[in-house]
Write a structure and sequence with these properties.
With 439 residues, the protein is of the alpha/beta class. The protein folds into two domains: 41-153 and 322-384, Periplasmic binding protein-like II (D-Maltodextrin-Binding Protein, domain 2, 3-Layer(aba) Sandwich), CATH 3.40.190; 156-318 and 398-433, 3-Layer(aba) Sandwich (D-Maltodextrin-Binding Protein, domain 2), CATH 3.40.190.10. It is 40% helix and 12% strand. It contains 18 helices and eleven strands. It has helices at residues 52-63, 79-91, 107-111, 121-128, 133-138, 161-166, 177-186, 199-211, 234-248, 261-269, 282-292, 297-301, 335-345, 348-358, 371-376, 380-389, 399-409, 421-433; strands spanning 41-46, 69-74, 99-102, 140-141, 144-145, 148-154, 156-160, 190-192, 273-278, 303-306, 321-327. The strands form three sheets. Strands 2-1-3-11-6 form a five-stranded mixed sheet. Strand 4 (140-141) and strand 5 (144-145) form a beta hairpin. The two termini are 42 Å apart.
Length: 439
């Protein structure tokens, strides 16, 4: 199993309160806006899934033998709306936010002002053993574990075996972006990447910069007035070169400027498919298409997988990190019970079950030993290995501004210029953070 290039010590102590940055809350009268609860009732705000979190809530409620009961409350479908709703409620002191399913990029924004209840030492010890390095990093702010990793997600490289063979690529070894771009070019195929002006663009740019040995932000703990970006750097230029080449040379296909993860998959399954960076949902979705008769079995048989492409042959890749962490609201009436419930939710057994039934990979490596996982996801070991070296998106209270700024300056891909775009995005985002420019 690959080991991470990043070593971090997790200090389990209460985060210091500070002013919430990056989100304009405005005047609200939301205190006490949560549902009325019994003394041992917990509300778990969940992101949309295939019913897996509700099933785990029911299971853990039964196993608690009356110590607590968990009711789920569904958040909006998109991450930005989830962030806004939770941040507003936390800022208003809503006591119903017992357990929250949180997208890792927004954790720093909630942890910085003290909106998250501290993680008890015993809970931290019990829930971080055997957890993949990428997920631990994403759950940490200022060297403190502030949330509990639940499931983790990452992109891997999917490829059509026939195309790789025709291009003469040895897929048993790591491949670079240059190699797969050249293979797509010589075989007259398209690459599956996400070029839409959306969060997926930030995911792609961050992964390219991290894989080139750089970082979007120099000091994640800096204030808006002192924050220093490093997009205008050799790593940023290398990232822009990849995005620009795929856009200008038409390697992403005609739909690249609006292409999302689902669009990439559809193109990859077609005659022009060659290589694609995408999440594990690719496998069950493709199997479902074959079962429904809308896709030939030969396409499924032609699909292989490996780690996210490297930027250079001698530099380890840094795949994207996604997933969900569990946080407890600082104003929760039942933080102790909430953390007790979280330990049940993130158990190895529940993580394995959630992967098999909902397609969301475990953050705990022990869960991958469940034989059902290998049967359902034969690329599970590749997913696990990818999560060990995955790099989170910038961990900063100003993530929303940084992500939106990247989306505006790095799209469409064909307009990206390695000599211009890194500096342009660096300057633009800095002005936004200084209050001198609007998004």
């Amino acid at each position: 199993m690959p080991t991470s290039r990043r070593t971090r010590n997790i200090v389990k102590s209460r985060p210091k309160a500070a002013v919430l940055a990056g989100l304009v809350i405005g005047t609200m009268a939301m205190s006490g806006c949560g549902p009325a609860q019994a003394d041992n009732s917990l509300t778990w705000y969940i992101n949309p899934d295939a019913g897996g979190q509700a099933a785990i809530a029911e299971k853990c409620t039964a196993e608690s033998e009356g110590r607590y009961s968990i009711e789920t409350s569904l958040l909006p479908s998109d991450a930005a709306s989830q962030r806004e709703q939770l941040a507003r409620r936390l800022a208003a002191g809503d006591s119903s936010l017992d357990i929250m399913s949180l997208d890792p990029p927004f954790i720093a924004e909630l942890a910085e002002p003290g909106f998250l209840a501290p993680v008890p030492d015993d809970v931290a010890a019990a829930t971080t053993e055997n957890v993949v390095e990428g997920a631990l990093t994403g759950a940490t702010w200022k060297d403190e574990l502030v949330t509990i990793p639940f499931w983790a997600n990452t992109q891997i490289l999917w490829y059509r075996k026939s195309v790789a063979e025709a291009a003469g690529l040895d897929m048993s070894k790591p491949v670079t972006w240059e190699q797969i771009m050249e293979a797509a070019r010589t075989q007259d195929k398209t690459l599956g990447v996400q070029g839409a002006r959306a969060e997926s663009m930030t995911v792609w740019v961050n992964a390219l910069i991290e894989s080139a040995g750089g970082s979007i932000i120099v000091d994640p703990e800096a204030t808006a007035d002192t924050v220093e970006l490093d997009i205008d750097s050799p790593a940023g230029v290398a990232a822009a070169d990849v995005v620009s080449t795929i856009g200008k040379d038409g390697l992403g296909g005609p739909g690249l400027p609006t292409q999302t993860e689902n669009d990439s998959l559809i193109a990859f399954q077609g005659d022009s498919g060659s290589f694609m960076v995408n999440y594990p949902f690719v496998w069950p979705a493709t199997n479902a298409a074959v079962e429904a008769g809308t896709l030939d079995q030969s396409v499924l048989d032609d699909i292989g997988w490996g780690l996210y492409p490297q930027m250079t042959p001698d530099q380890e890749t840094a795949p994207p990190l996604g997933g969900i962490d569990l946080g407890v609201g600082a104003e929760s009436d039942n933080p102790e019970l909430a953390y007790e419930a979280i330990q049940c939710i993130v158990s190895v057994e529940n993580q394995a079950e959630y992967f098999v039934t909902n397609g969301n990979p475990p953050s705990n490596t022990e869960a991958y030993n469940d034989p059902r996982i290998a049967e359902t996801f034969p690329m599970a070991n590749t997913i696990r290995d990818s999560l060990q070296i995955a790099a989170p998106r910038p961990q900063t209270p100003f993530y929303n501004e940084i992500s939106t700024g990247i989306q505006q300056t790095w799209t469409p891909p064909a307009d990206v210029d390695p000599d211009v775009t890194p500096k342009e995005s660096d300057d633009f985002i800095t002005l936004v953070l200084r209050g001198e420019q609007l998004l």
